[in-house]
Amino acid sequence: MTENIDQTSNRVRLPILPLRELVLFPGVSAPIAAGRPGTLRGIEAALRADTPLVFAVTQRDNIEKVSPDSLYRMGTIARIEQVQRGLGGMQLLLHGQRRGAGLRFEEKKGYLEAVVEYAADIPPLDPAETAFAGLFKEMRERAVELGRKTGISEDIIQQVLDNVTDPGAFADLVAGYLDVASLERQALLEILDVEERVRRVLVHAQRQIELLDVQEDIKSQVQEEIGSRQREMFLREQLKAIQRELGEEEESSEIEELKQRLERLELHKDVWSEVKRELSRLERAPRESTEAQVIRTYLETIVELPWNKRSEDDLNLDDAELKLDEDHYGLGDVKDRVLEFLAVRKLKYAAAAASEEDEVASDKYSSRGPILLFAGPPGVGKTSIAKSIARAMGREYVRISLGGARDEADIRGHRRTYVGALPGRIIQGMKQAGTKNPVFLLDEIDKLGVSFQGDPSSALLEVLDPAQNDTFIDHYLGVPFDLSEVLFIATANFVQNIPGPLRDRMEVVDFTGYTEKEKLEIARQYLVPRQTKEAGISQEQIKFGDEALRHLITGYTREAGVRQLERELGRTTRKVARRFARGEIEHFEVGADDVRKLLGRPRVHPERAAAKDQIGIATGMFYTPVGGDIMFVEVSVMEGKGNLVLTGQLGDVMKESARAALSYTKANAEILGVSPSRLSDKDIHIHVPAGAIPKDGPSAGVTMATALVSALAGLPVRHDIAMTGEVTLSGKVLPIGGVKEKILGAFRAGITNIILPSENLADLEDLSDDERQRIHVTPASNLNAVLDAALRRPDENGSHRMPTLDLDFVPN
Q: How many CB atoms lie within 10 A of CB 523?
């Protein structure tokens, strides 16, 4: 599009820019916000011209739908100086060039266009006439006075006086800044007679000066009535002014000290640019103003952050391994992962020291911190091992709890525009650590909540992404902060509760429950010394026998970890400490009988293996967050119509396993030795005891199938065998999870004969050598193998001998 200007006449065709409650004068610049579709199309048409001009004309009424009848005829031909596009429309800077009269308004391609005739000023008959010269001089003096009262600087006022000498242009310039109603501004715009325009502008300027004087008088009266607190503040400001005159500028010295501290940080140029801008604002802001306090707090936060301060890693692998073993028993996978990280750091340091090449030497600190997720049941040492890792590596340790956090600002911080804004927990943790490479524990990451304030788990995606966290931006800081050298460790009880994208950024390290033997060692080496010390008893005064510790573990705790065990040990030592305090005893050795006397009857009653073989009752194994255990599946066959009844608060998956087992039995009744009549005219009731506890999952499939076949075929199930595995409709046995916990649960119940899916044999490596020696495992790839091992079938010796597995064999 080219400019629609007739060079031979004083008319021009321009897009219309309708203004609401605003009148633009020639020679005046004004910012305009445009958002209506027709207006935006008109602006785009103007921008396509060689010279972006529009006809800025004011609406008669503040209405949304613009029509030619709703616009004044007199307006201003304006040039578009700047354009900024946004989601809601455009921000323009218009500069008025000259008056124009709209001769014809018409709609064109979705926007209004006008044929505009230039409206020339009517000069005075004699500009040198005394009356007009005095009028113009009076207006200039009143304009200067008005500018001073409204806070315009003397330099700008003088610049305007020197540059604008034409009376009409000067009147337009003053009119553009008058605080008068839109209707009166439009009336001023429509005055073409320069003398009349100057006179009307002078009247408005004088009236505004008088209004400002009245406001100043009212303000003075109010200030005279202020209380003691405001008067004190006023006097203090006067005192500061006097001190500045005497050179006692305490404030500037504080700012200078803050500036020097910031310069010593050696900040990145982008960060330093933002800091300099805030320093400049602080120097201009009054000391006691809210703005100054906010800026000072922000800059002090910047100073306190560890931008370049690091802890030197302790790269002695033997010392690190010794420290880890001192604090925790077992947890070999976790300790190996930490030692691997230190080994890599040690090799990189050696390479940097041996080479003088810049790219190798600069790689000294480029080893990104790993992001580990410790997943496991409560009380197994996930949180405490993180602190031991920091001690072993020689790093600072900081922990934040994410349980129940529902606000995204908890992670990313609040923007400084909010009152009481603070950095997020990540930046606060880094400030607490004091170094940029601490061990940072994100505790209970699976307990994050979601609310209308945002999703904090999504805010953690950048924190826990090694490819992005070197430029993490907290909303409060507003500048990038490097988190790439931090060793992030997250803990969770249930990995499935963590959103997929967040879980994908972390390396999962599984924490399994402790065996009774491991709990005994932990109690002996760590818990008993700690609890005796807290009770004020020396280890020479009190001794815990192994039988007493075993009785505490089995009779008073039911957990995968050792948290409850430590509490029970604490109760025991406190009761003994009471006797020491009274002088009743000088030495005490706690035995199994003493535990019951001190703590009362046992409160935990774990399942025990059945006393004898029974028809229709099979023993399964299941996993819970507090460890593994056994359960019994009972099947009863009674007169009926072939219905299947399921009880015991079973979940949908468990009910489906029961139906699959029944369908397999019906389809293979002849092979299994089940009479068809027992399937057609009998009701089958499957019950899993402990009905108050919800149960779900596919791993009870083989147990249900075995109990079902036992009840229908009249064959007893071995009471000394426990089984687990998912069963399909074709009789295949599929692998399951939690093998170690389930086997340990069977141990506690007194069962050492186990039936496992063949594909789960590799999971036996998680057990210790001693535990593998104590069990007999039967691998099963189909249901027939399970039934052969679990059901008692009469043979020539009157019993069935269970096959065993060579545990040195590990399948490919």
A: 25
34-43, 376-385, 779-788: segment of lowest average pLDDT: 376-385
Whether the per-residue pLDDT at 812 is higher than 60: the answer is no
CB-CB contact of 329 with 518 (8 Å) = yes
Section 628-655 average pLDDT: 87
Work out the burial of residue 481: count CB atoms within 10 Å of its CB; fewer than 13 is exposed, 13-18 middle, 19 or more buried: buried
Instruction: Evaluate whether 620 touches 689 at the Cβ level (below 8 Å).
Output: no
Out of 317-321, 472-476, 604-608, 725-729, pick the least confident.
604-608
**pTM for the full model?**
0.60
User: At residue 160, what is the residue type?
Assistant: V
* Strand, helix or coil for residue 63: coil
* Integer Cα distance of 323 and 757 in angstroms: 39
CA dihedral over 313, 318, 321, 325, signed as positive or negative = negative
CA angle 555, 558, 562 (to 5 degrees): 100
Q: Is 12's pLDDT higher than 60?
A: yes
Count the Cβ atoms, other than its own, within 10 Å of residue 654: 23
Q: The tokens of 509 are what?
A: 């390290």
Closest C-alpha among 732, 691, 711 to residue 618: 711
Is residue 732 flagged as an active site residue?
Answer: no
pLDDT tens sequence across 724-733: 999 998 889 9
Closest C-alpha to 334, from 396, 392, 385, 370: 385
Q: DSSP string covering 408-449, please?
A: THHHH---TTSTT----HHHHHHHHH-SSS-EEEEETGGG--
Instruction: Please name the residue that has the structure tokens 């839109």.
Output: 182
Cα–chain center distance at 619: 44
Query: Which 8-state DSSP code applies to residue 776?
Result: E
What would the mean pLDDT of 313-336 be, rounded to a whole number? 83
For residues 48-75, b (16+ Cβ closer than 10 Å) or e, as one string? ebeebbbbbbbbeeeeeebeeeebbebb
| Residue 807: pLDDT over 50 | no
Distance CA 224, CA 227 (A): 9
Q: Is 742 a catalytic residue?
A: yes
d(CA 272, CA 423) in angstroms, rounded, equals 18
- Phi, psi torsion values for 588, nearest 5 degrees: -145, 130
Q: Which one of the listed residues 519, 682, 740, 742 is annotated catalytic?
A: 742
Q: What angle do CA 444, 558, 778 make, to 5 degrees?
A: 100
What is the structure's pLDDT at 246?
A: 59
Q: Characterize the bridge pairing of strands 716-717 and 614-615.
A: antiparallel
| DSSP H stretches of helix in 490-559 | 500-503, 516-522, 528-534, 546-556
In this structure, of 19-28, 291-300, 701-710, the range with the lowest mean pLDDT score is: 291-300
Within its chain, how far is the Cα of 812 from the centroid?
42
Question: How many C-beta atoms surround the C-beta of residue 778 within 10 A?
Answer: 20
Residue 438: which region, alpha, beta or left (left: phi > 0; alpha: psi -120 to 50)? Answer: beta
- Helix, strand, or coil here: 329? coil
Residue 801 DSSP label: P
Q: Annotate 732-744 with b (16+ C-beta within 10 A) or e (fewer).
A: ebbbbebbbbbbb
Q: Which pLDDT belongs to residue 94? A: 92
Supply the pLDDT for residue 703. Answer: 92
Catalytic residue, from 484, 699, 710, 740: name it. Answer: 699
